UniProtKB/TrEMBL annotation:
Protein name from the UniProt record: Integrase zinc-binding domain-containing protein
InterPro entries: Integrase_H2C2
Gene source species: Araneus ventricosus (Orbweaver spider)
Domain Integrase zinc-binding: 57-111
Gene3D superfamilies tied to this protein: 1.10.340.70
Length: 119
């Protein structure tokens, strides 16, 4: 796992346990009404492109994206690629763009130096 570790996995499980939408998906899964999802060790996954991706609970999404991005202050595409290896986040591109747009080190690094006033 690139982003995940035991502490983060426990935090993700707890967040999923407290999320009503994820609990609804889990009950649909029990009734065989959510074929693209599976549950393993109490964690909900979505099966996409032959991979089991952890369903990231809404409040955890920004934290997960920040972990992926801040490991090298990668571009939107590279950050998405890292996140998609382990997690399912709806509207991933928009969330990644928002996180990177608000990343202080990236803002400072990309700040263009222009002509200073008075010179």
């Amino acid at each position: 796992m690139i982003i995940s570790n035991d502490t983060l996995t426990a935090k993700l499980k707890k967040a999923q346990d407290e999320d009503e939408n994820i609990q609804t998906l889990k009950s649909l899964l029990e009734k065989n009404e959510a074929e693209e999802f599976l549950e393993r060790n109490g964690i909900l996954y979505k099966y996409i492109n032959r991979r089991d991706l952890i369903v990231a609970q809404k409040e955890m999404q920004v934290e997960l994206i920040k972990l992926a991005h801040e490991n090298g202050h990668f571009s939107v595409a590279k950050t998405e690629e890292i996140v998609k290896q382990e997690f399912f986040i709806p509207n991933l591109t928009n969330v990644v763009k928002s996180v990177i747009f608000n990343c202080s080190p990236c803002i400072l690094a990309n700040k263009k130096s222009g002509r200073k006033e008075g010179f």
